[in-house]
Amino acid sequence: MPLYYDDDQAMLADSASDFMREEGAIAKQLRHWRDRDCKDGFGHGLWEQFGEMGFTGILLPEEDGGLGMGQVEANIVLEEIGANLTPSPFLSSSVLAATALKHGSDDTRGRWLPDLVAGKNVYAVAIDEGPKHRPERIACKAEKSGNGFKLTGKKDFVVYGASAEMIVVAARTSGSDSDTDGITLFAVPQDADGMSHDSVRLVDSSMASHITFDGVDLDGDAVIGEVDGGREILNAMLRAGRVGAAAEGVGVARGAMDMTVDYLKQRKQFGTLIGTFQALQHRAAHLYSEVEIARAVVLKAAQLVDGESEKAELMTSVAKAKVAKAAGLAVREGVQMHGGIGMTDEYDIGLYMKRERALQEFLGDMYYHAGRVAELSGY
Amino acid sequence: MADLEQFRAETRSWLEANCPPEMREPVETDKDVYWGGRNATFKNDAQKAWFEACRDKGYTVPMWPKEYGGAGLSAPEAKVLREEMARINARPPLSSFGIWMLGPALLHFGTEGQKQRFLNEIARGEIRWCQGYSEPGSGSDLVSMQTYGEDKGDHWIVNGQKIWTSYADEADWIFCLVRTDKDNKYQGITFMLFDMAGDGVSTKPIKLISGNSPFCETFMDDVKVPKSYGEDVPAYVGEINRGWDVAKYLLGHEREMISATGGVDRASSLGAVTSRQGELDPVLRSEMALFDVDALAFTAMSEKFLDEVKIGKGHPAQPNMLKYAGTEMNKRRHELLMAAGGSRTLEWESEETENGKPARSWLRTKANSIEGGTSEIMLNVISKRILELPGA
Ligand SMILES: Cc1cc2nc3c(=O)[nH]c(=O)nc-3n(C[C@H](O)[C@H](O)[C@H](O)COP(=O)(O)OP(=O)(O)OC[C@H]3O[C@@H](n4cnc5c(N)ncnc54)[C@H](O)[C@@H]3O)c2cc1C
Ligand SMILES: Cc1cc2nc3c(=O)[nH]c(=O)nc-3n(C[C@H](O)[C@H](O)[C@H](O)COP(=O)(O)OP(=O)(O)OC[C@H]3O[C@@H](n4cnc5c(N)ncnc54)[C@H](O)[C@@H]3O)c2cc1C
Known about the structure:
The structure holds two protein chains of two kinds. Chain A has helices at residues 7-23, 30-35, 44-53, 71-84, 90-101, 106-117, 230-264, 278-306, 312-338, 349-361, 366-376; strands at 123-126, 141-145, 148-159, 166-172, 183-189, 195-201, 207-218, 223-224, 268-269, 272-273. By secondary structure, chain A is α+β, with helices and mostly antiparallel strands. In chain A, β6 and β7 (207-218) form a beta hairpin. In chain A, α7 (230-264) packs parallel to α9 and α7 (230-264) packs antiparallel against α10. By secondary structure, chain B is α+β, with helices and mostly antiparallel strands. Chain B has three domains: 2-95, Butyryl-Coa Dehydrogenase, subunit A, domain 1 (Orthogonal Bundle), CATH 1.10.540; 129-241, Butyryl-CoA Dehydrogenase, subunit A, domain 2 (Beta Barrel), CATH 2.40.110; 262-386, Butyryl-CoA Dehydrogenase, subunit A, domain 3. Chain B has ten helices and eight strands. Chain B starts with a helix and ends in a 6-residue tail after the last helix. The chains are: A alpha+beta, B alpha+beta. Chains A and B meet through β9, α9, α10 and α11 of A and α7, α8, α9 and α10 of B. One flavin-adenine dinucleotide sits between chains B (131, 133-134, 139-140, 164, 166, 215, 367, 370-374, 376-377, 380) and A (267, 269-270, 274, 277, 279-280, 336-337, 339-340, 343).
């Protein structure tokens, strides 16, 4: 498959770009909600607009009311989200949770998908246990109890967990903590007894929960897919989420870079535009190279995910790690080249730095993914 | 040496008697720092007692001469005092831009009258000073600054805007670079001293990305600055139109200070500060180890530099190198601390992180390579003054 957008994808990119620039702009969304100390961390109105645009169901098949598109298309939306720092539950709900729900029974899909597609409901995913992403190890337990299960344990970094009508929880139904098998996914509704949230604002103004499950009773039909057969679905979710986060990271990098390059063309010191200093020109040119390379590998990885290629796993980790490096560079260079005003809350460049940090940590940082690259490459 | 050992013994027992236990705890918030000034308040009795004991002994500024409020300590004695204070984790009794910046400038350039008045006020924590250098249009190119003082015979009328004036909203007086000759770039700036309570001075806090607002924009709107505050107390340091010499002297001093602390306090190895070493991701661990290589090597460089300074050796532009390397390293250090701490360190408002301390500290370090001259400017200076590259 060629590594450029086809006509439909190019059209989607245009409309996503226009939409996010208009409706998802920093002043209209991120700053607006942040400065009002919004407990959701995003605007429900915008989420409904996502629904009107069809974005909410972008990965879902048409029979579920979705657009029946793939990772490449979801990534197109995510890159624009990144470039505009648009706070939204898109990655959690429409990429991660939707990927899980695709594997649900007719009942499960019927119960949860229509309200997602409509932009009414928000869903979250609970994977991490502890401050670092280690999905190989899952200790959160779901024990058989009557016709259903009893869920006990803790989850961390559940993005937008407190706003979610339903949370997809990866829990252990058999085996020991580090076993690959024995994982089951559950759709846990918001009002489940025994589930408590400690919802915390993060550096990028988004919200995330530490969740405690204290013997939460779940019906058998809360199971997504097969009992003990959740690892494959979890892996599919992780691939989609990681490539998606990488696409958003490319957007963050692009936004920060564009803003910085613009600034080099405006700011004068020593009687000349600072963009005339070769010390800065070379760094901007280097940054451009890195961001372009990162964008290429994200597109490659997304295509491999869509094609269900066996290389998808490797290239997903390459993409996630490469973007962390490139976007990290973009925001650090961005702040530095803005000089003092880059440190002020009034300028947007610092917001890019904050978002990049949270995104980099989400679903594995560059160290974790570099380690996976080594492993998958056989060393 | 015997004298020095006796001095150490005396200092130790003096500190034992005078430094309250509360003042031996690490500084946690800005309230733990006593800045002095007209409107200063003490956080608690311990802070007051510690400050007053030091003030009376001259230990707010140990190396300044006694007649200006100091203790007149020699450099080796001052080092002993520092070591003994560090041994018990004693907090600085008084912090201020007067001590760090204006004081050294006055000791070097001031008149006897200025020293008598201003140094004593600083040492006794009576007047809190702030620094008015940078302007919105003049950061790296500081000498292009435009704030203008019109000569009116016995006074100037000052108009203009400064930015990044630290704590200007809490300061009493400002030492301020003011252009007094528009036709002469370098020799047209006067280093003025004036009271901010006067008419026409206003301040507006700047909120940083870390959420704190210790800096201000300072606006001067027809501010009347008399040329003299009494016999032998001119309202400017050095000569009129020669303020750049003073500013340059201070910038060198500031960089030395930043680089010295950058080396000793901040670049310490990472292993000691992460409690999760056992669980560390192997790739992150390698990255941290490579950082430690740089950090520990840099500590040796700082030490070498400080030793060479004492005997007047070493290239005078080396502080630029230390400032560059030390601040870049501190940024990297905090990146790694964030990675090691994982999603917990992303928290902005939680009890466990004491309201986002790791994230806010990480963001604050990003200014290290900007404040006091950017990394790029440091590298330019190295290229020019040490490597003597053409056109640099
Ligand atoms: C293995 C090899 C194969 C080659 N094959 C060919 C060939 O097939 N055909 C051919 O014609 N030539 C060939 N060359 C020559 C090559 O193109 C030149 O070496 C190259 O263009 C650099 O020129 P220079 O060696 O004069 O270095 P210089 O131009 O003198 O450069 C010296 C250094 O200054 C830097 N520099 C120069 N200008 C600037 C600037 N404006 N800004 C910033 N930095 C600058 C350079 O990057 C370099 O680091 C080859 C060279 C090598 C090493
Ligand atoms: C937290 C903080 C505290 C500060 N405290 C003080 C203070 O107490 N007192 C005070 O007076 N000022 C203070 N400053 C201001 C600081 O000194 C300036 O921000 C700094 O000198 C850079 O100036 P600028 O912000 O105007 O950036 P600019 O000079 O506009 O620089 C923008 C970018 O261009 C680069 N650049 C500029 N010139 C060149 C060149 N010739 N070659 C290559 N690159 C170049 C810079 O390195 C930077 O990356 C503080 C700043 C911060 C952020």
